[in-house]
Amino acid sequence: MKKYIDLIEENLSSFDFGSKPKEIYEPIRYILSLGGKRLRPVLTLLSYQLFDKDFHKAVFPAIGIEVFHNFTLLHDDIMDNAPMRRGKQTVHEKWNDNVAILSGDVMLVKAYDLMLYADKEKIHKVISKFNRCAAEVCQGQQYDMNFESRHSVSETEYLEMIRLKTAVLLGFALELGAILGGADENTCSKLYAFGINIGLGFQLKDDLLDVYADSAKFGKQVGGDIIANKKTFLLIKALELASEAQKEQLNFWLEKKDFDAKDKVQAVVSLYDQLNIKSLTEQKMNEFFDNGLAILRDLPVTKEKKQPLRQLTLQLIDREK
User: Fold this and answer.
1) Are residues 235 and 306 in the same domain?
2) What domain range is 29 assigned to?
3) Is 80 exceeded by the pLDDT of residue 64?
4) Gap between the Cα atoms of 167 and 194, Å rounded
5) How far is 154 from 158, CA to CA, in rounded Å?
6) What percent of the chain has pLDDT over 90?
7) Contact present, 195 and 176 (Cβ < 8 Å)
8) Burial class (CB in 10 A: 0-12, 13-18, 19+), 287
9) What's 82's DSSP letter?
10) Domain count of the fold of the chain
């Protein structure tokens, strides 16, 4: 994986996004310098190498996905009024909302520029698929915001929201690599489905880590979703399964405006433990990862070529941050 990540970092840092006015371009370089897993462009390169050894041809479209992903984070941070991103000030805090909006808009434009590095005969398909994905990510973000003001959200609704907000971009990252590598339509569709399943598992793992991670390894506050009353899979499942007495306790903490964060997290986690929520979340998460691995097994490519993708999936299942 290191060779892919190093190549992505090198090209991200050297790509000419622009320079003037500096208020637009400095925030772009800033947010991209904050790091991250670079999971999406790595998936594109891994998918590409299933069909063609010269994965360098896919580097610019791959980093286009990373630029798009960071554009969504930049705008999400404004909507969430988030003060920190990866341990550093968010762009709208470091500069202001207007700068963050414009910088994000330019990042979206630059993501399209990077997609245009695809082979000429593949550009129409790449842009068409990218447009579908980009619109769905926005739909997912809107559903997520809608859920903030709703008293209840069903498991089905939540899974559809995270499919749109998180999973479709992982699916497109894999589909993009396959398209660029010359795979047929059926194989591209299978890699997209593989990405959707690992994307759903990835987000459920995030929900789980926010509550049950080792704080020393997690890198951010454990229990943040509980403090913010975020409607995660864990909370939705707890409200569904709780007895009347347990639901009363949960609603007490959900409605309480003035509270000690540590007390709230401890009380809600205690209720989750009573309801076996951790195990139920792991079960649902593993269901999606297992589905993804089954799709990968059936992919008409040699086992040796598929091994890096399989290994990455196993790392996502076992990650601690």
Assistant:
1) yes
2) 1-158
3) yes
4) 10
5) 6
6) 89
7) no
8) middle
9) -
10) 2
CATH number of the domain at 150, please: 1.10.600.10
The CB density around residue 299, as the number of other CB atoms within 10 Å, is: 18
- The DSSP bridge partners found for residue 88 are 85
- pLDDT value of position 85: 85
Please name the residue that has the structure tokens 């079960």: 283
Same domain flag for 41 and 2: yes
Q: What is the pLDDT of residue 174?
A: 98
Q: Which of 94, 123, 158 is the last residue of a domain?
A: 158
pLDDT of residue 215: 66
**Residue 163 falls within a domain, yes or no?**
no
- Rounded to 10°, the helix 168-181/59-80 angle is 170
Cis peptide, bond prior to residue 27, ω within 30 of zero: no
Please, is 156 exposed, middle or buried when counting C-beta atoms within 10 Å of its C-beta (0-12, 13-18, 19+)?
exposed
Each residue of 272-290: pLDDT tens digit? 999 999 999 999 999 999 9
Model pLDDT, residue 221 = 63
| 42 pLDDT above the threshold of 80 | yes
* DSSP per position, 198-218: HHHHHHHHHHHHHHHS-HHHH
Give the integer Cα–Cα distance in Å for 281 and 261: 23
Q: What angle do CA 26, 100, 141 make, to 5 degrees?
A: 130
